[in-house]
Design goal:
163 residues, mainly alpha, Arc Repressor Mutant, subunit A, 3 strands, globular
Length: 163
């Protein structure tokens, strides 16, 4: 059974270009695949998720695990898996927060320094390929717009989770 005509949105002519959301999802999927290939070629033995986690811990030292998950926009249990593997490899430590022993503070270890250099180099290679032909100003604008887009979506996601 079909919905009554009044319940359906009005028919629109097919656009000559795909909508922004489609382009964004396609670009994100392709970029993720490129990042995965970049990390596979490093010999570091890290997945893209582990490499991203290690970089976030380095960019935001001393965060609690819960705050790190929120900053990365991942579920806490997803982050735990990444941190378990990074800790087993000796690249991060988790220590009790002196203000709340139930919470864990995550930090990189000195042994992570060469690994982080490899992660950042692989990410830079993927970024250079993805932004080939972009000026520095265009790259900065793209980054700023994507950060705003991410923040808008994260805010909406958090408010929906709080209901």
């Amino acid at each position: 059974m079909t919905a009554p005509a009044s319940a359906c949105p009005p028919a629109r002519p097919a656009p000559s270009e795909p909508p922004l959301g489609f382009v964004l999802v396609d670009a994100a999927r392709l970029y993720r695949a490129r990042i995965d290939r970049a990390f596979e070629g490093t010999g570091l033995g890290l997945t893209a998720g582990e490499a991203r986690t290690l970089a976030y811990v380095d960019f935001h030292p001393g965060l609690r695990q819960s705050a790190l998950a929120e900053k990365m926009n991942v579920e806490p249990m997803t982050l735990v898996g990444f941190l378990d593997r990074l800790e087993a490899a000796g690249l991060v430590t988790r220590e009790a927060d002196p203000k709340d022993r139930r919470a864990k503070i995550v930090t990189v270890t000195p042994e992570a320094t060469p690994c982080l250099a490899g992660v950042l180099a692989a990410a830079a290679d993927a970024r250079r390929e993805a932004t080939c032909g972009f000026s520095e100003a265009e790259q900065a604008l793209l980054r700023d717009l994507l950060v705003r887009l991410r923040d808008n979506l994260a805010r909406e996601h958090r408010s929906r989770d709080e209901k």
